[in-house]
Amino acid sequence: MTFDPTLIASSFAAVEPHGVKITKYFYEHLFDNNPGVRPLFARHMEEQEDRLWNALGGLVANVEDTESVTRILRSLGTRHVGYGALPEHFPAVGASLLATLRHFAGEAWTPQIEESWTALYGVITATMSEAMTEAAVGTGRAANSD
Questions:
Q1: CATH code at 64?
Q2: Whole-structure pTM over 0.90, yes or no?
């Protein structure tokens, strides 16, 4: 399955006017459905919400530039090792991301958009996981719980 950059960009444009409501909803959904990840985050989330919004916007803005997207995602993956994130956290994050986008897109959300975001999230997961594993090996930390 591959993602359609046009669907990614247009669906993000549809939710973008909601701004900070998107990241607040995302984290509420993530923590409500996966309370075990809450300790990985600061108590006050405003800065983290801004980081997420900027990362998501940067990803969408560069979605057709494979080299830029790979660079962004590898950097994020490497940094997330230091936060205690693990590759097995990705399914929960992906479910919350899709739920958030679906919620704010409303009737504009289609099965094709869902499929495209799911495929893009697969790329995100694979790229960040690889960078996390490499960074963890370099620091002597385990990148997974196996």
A1: 1.10.490.10
A2: no
